[in-house]
Amino acid sequence: MFTLKSLFVAAVSLPLAISASTTSYAADGEPAGYLFGSVEIFGGGIKLTEGSGLVGTPTNEPVNAKFYGGALKAGYGFNNGILVVGELFTEKTNTGSADDSYASGFSMAGHLAYQRDDWLFGAFGGRINTDQDNNNNDTSIRHFYGIEGQYYWENVTLMAQLGRLGGTGGTDDSGEDSIYDATFFKVGVNWFVQPDTMLSAHFSGARGVMGDKTGFFDRAHKVTTRNWGVRAEHQFTFENNIKFSVYAKYDISYYDERPGESDHFDERTWMVGLKIKFNNSDSLRASNRRGETLEAPRELVRWVAQTGGPGE
């Protein structure tokens, strides 16, 4: 019987096995691959509504906050199809000193994949740190891993990810007051209206637990998260082939801890961002098919922080 962990091991082993047994496609004297990367900054707003505006009438006044952050990505594509990518992501909010409020989050991740002309398959893994109290008293540390794939069809890219989120590190009630022992997924589509203009949509979710699994009075209970999002991005080219893209994005996340607890709420996020790319002479569509869109689900950071903050 196949498990997610066995698929993860297979996803890591397959690119390495192919790399060891396949000769490079490059001619003698040509580079063995290509380096790529990007630097990203962004900012936006969060509206948190308890009682869930999607499922019923809100029971409390919404909470509004602003956030800003950045990301760094670097990767190398070998001419035999192997891709290795590393990424860092961080964001911070202005929720102030309020208890049980998302203060900041950080994640680091790596990807190992094998790519052909019309598809990609690989594995990813990383770590998350969040602070949901603004005084470092309620922090969570989680790890995640999974498998991912992409399919390229004319002007459309389809993507899917499946993984596990675990760990109970941190100071938030011994680290157990955020989602853990969870299975998560993400599916999405990128449509290239023009080579440098992209419209995207995605759907993601997770199912896990919160609380102490062994405690008598504080037993673990189920928690479910869902996320819908849309994004528009356009890439510009300047002198010396310097490329940068601007984007706008809107997301809705839903958190449900019933029946274990009565907490269920919405998180609506809008954001704009700027991404500067280095060592890239491709269109947005072409770079999308070179593995440069490999990215761990950033929703995981919010899911950990918000379940441990307002959802706790």
Number of helices: 3
Name the shape in a single word: globular
Count of beta strands: 12
What distance lies between the first and last C-alpha atoms, to the nearest angstrom? 36 Å
Describe what you observe in this structure.
The relative contact order is 0.18. A 12-stranded antiparallel beta barrel has the order 1-2-3-4-5-6-7-8-9-10-11-12. Strand 2 and strand 3 form a beta hairpin. It is globular, with a radius of gyration of 20 Å. The protein has helices at 4-21, 284-288, 299-308; strands spanning 33-50, 63-78, 82-93, 104-115, 119-131, 139-153, 156-169, 180-194, 197-210, 221-237, 243-256, 264-278. Helix content is 11%, strand content 56%. The chain has 312 residues and is mostly beta strands.
